[in-house]
Amino acid sequence: MRRRRFLALPMLAATVPALAEVDYPRVEPRAFVFPRDRGAHPEFRIEWWYVTGWVTGDGGRDYGVQITFFRNRPGVAEASASVFAPRQLLFAHAAIADPRRGRLYHDQRAARAGLGLAEADEATTNASIGDWTLREVSGRYGAKIAARDFSLDLEFAPTQPPLLQGDKGVSRKGPDPAQASYYYSEPQLRVTGTLQVGGASVAVTGTAWLDHEWSSTVMAPEASGWDWAGINFADGGALMAFRMRDKSGGALWAGGAHRDREGRVRMFAPGDVRFTPLRVWRSPRTGVTYPVEMQVDVAGATYQLKPLMDDQELDSRASTGTIYWEGAVRAFDAGQEVGRGYLELTGYGAPLKL
Predict the structure, then answer these.
(1) Pairing state of beta strands 238-246 and 251-259?
(2) How far apart, in whole angstroms, are the C-alpha atoms of residue 318 and residue 248?
(3) Is the CA virtual torsion 213, 242, 259, 67 positive or negative?
(4) CA-CA distance, 254 to 223, in Å (whole number)?
(5) What single string gives the DSSP state of each residue in 37-77?
(6) Angstrom distance (rounded) from CA 20 to CA 28
(7) All structural domains of the chain with their residue ranges
(8) Cα atoms in the Cβ-side hemisphere of radius 13 Å centred on 314
(9) Which residues contact 23 (CB under 8 A, 6 or more apart)?
(10) Partner residues linked to 305 by β-bridges
(11) Sequential pLDDT tens for the chain (354 residues)
C-alpha cells in the first residue's frame, strides 16, 4: 500500500488544476549564508541534496553509496486552504553499488510535504520522507535509509569549506543566463558508519561528496540531458565537471571547477571542458546504452573515469519519472589512479524532463 501511494503522487500532482499563478524566482547573484543556505528554498521550483561516495568495509571491500533528496514546487493548488494540497513534493533515491552482487541495491520514495509524511527544513539541511533522513547537526551530516533490500546509517564530516560553483555560486547551465542554478559542493567529506547489504552489517569508512542545487529552470529547451562528474583526489583536491548535451549528443554548455590540495580554485568556462566516451554498456532491463567509461579533459588536464561496475543504472520512474546511470568511478591520470568519485549520465534513453 505504501508503494502504491508513492506511485500515485507524481500522477496526482500532474492532474490537480493550478489554483494560482506561480512566479518562480530567477537565479541572480547574491551572497551565500551558511547554515541557512544548506536548508530548503521552497520558493524555487526544484532543489536537490546529492551525496555520493566510496566506502570500504571489512577485508578492503569497496562500495559506492548514493543518497539524494529532491524537492519540487509544482505550482499547483497554492491558493487552496486544504492541508492536502501538494504545494511541495519530496522525492528520495538511495543506492549501494556492490561489485560482488554486480548491480545496484536501490530504492526510492515520494511524498507531499507536511502531515508528518515528508519535510525539508529551511534553516539547514534536514530532509525526510518517513524514516529516510538526511540531516545536518553541529556541522556534520547524518543519513539514515531503511530500504527494502538494504539500509545505511552514515555520518559525513566536512574537512573543507563549501566550494561555490560557477560565478560565486551561480552556475550557468545553458546559453541563456536564466538557465542557471545556485550550486555549491562539499568535497572530501569523511564517512563513517554501517551498511546492511546481503543480510550482513558492514562497518565502513570512506570519502564522499555533497552537492546542493536549487533553481527554477536549469535546462535549455534544446538540451536532452547532462554528464556530470565529481572526483575526490587522493591528494585532497577536488574536481567537478559537467556538460549539458543537445539533442544530437553534442555539448550545448559545459563548466566545472577544480580545487587543489592547497585550496586554490579554478573555474572552467564552457570551452575548457570536454567529455569523450571510451566504452559503452547497454542495460539488459531498459535497453538504454550509457558511456560508462569516460575521458574528461579540463583545461589541459586529462582523466579517464572507469566504473566500479558497469550496472549502476537507476530506474526512478516510480518517483521522479526518469531512468539514469549514477555510478562510482575511479579517476586515472596517465594510467595511475589519482582519485575516486561519481559519474552521472542522464537523458540517454529519452530526453530528460525535470
Answers:
(1) antiparallel
(2) 28
(3) positive
(4) 12
(5) GGS--TTSSEEEEEEEEEEE-GGG-EEEEEEEEEEE----S
(6) 24
(7) 2-17+38-346
(8) 29
(9) none
(10) 294, 331
(11) 333 333 333 333 333 344 446 889 999 999 999 999 999 999 999 999 999 999 999 889 999 999 999 999 998 878 777 777 788 999 999 999 999 999 899 999 999 998 888 999 999 999 999 999 999 999 999 999 999 999 999 999 999 999 999 999 999 999 999 999 999 999 999 999 999 998 899 999 999 999 999 999 878 889 999 999 999 999 999 999 999 999 989 999 999 999 999 999 999 999 999 999 999 999 999 999 999 999 999 989 999 999 999 999 988 776 666 899 999 999 999 999 999 999 999 999 877 776
Burial 223-242 (b: 16+ CB within 10 A, else e): bbbbbbbbbbbeebbbbbbb
Residue 6 phi, psi (nearest 5) = -65, -40
DSSP 173: -
Class (C level, CATH) for 2-17+38-346: mainly beta
- Helix residue ranges, H only, the chain: 2-15
pTM of the predicted structure, to 2 decimals: 0.91
Interatomic CA distance for residues 156 and 164, integer angstroms: 19
Which grid cell sits at 98?
556492490
Radius of gyration, alpha carbons of the chain: 19
312 and 326 Cβ atoms separated by less than 8 Å: yes
Kindly give, in sequence order, each residue whose CB lies less than 8 Å from that of residue 158, ignoring residues fewer than 6 positions away: 139, 140, 186, 188, 189, 190
CA 48 vs. chain centroid, Å, equals 7
> Using CA atoms, how far apart are residues 327 and 27, in angstroms rounded to an integer?
29
User: Can you read off the three cell numbers belonging to residue 59?
Assistant: 577485508
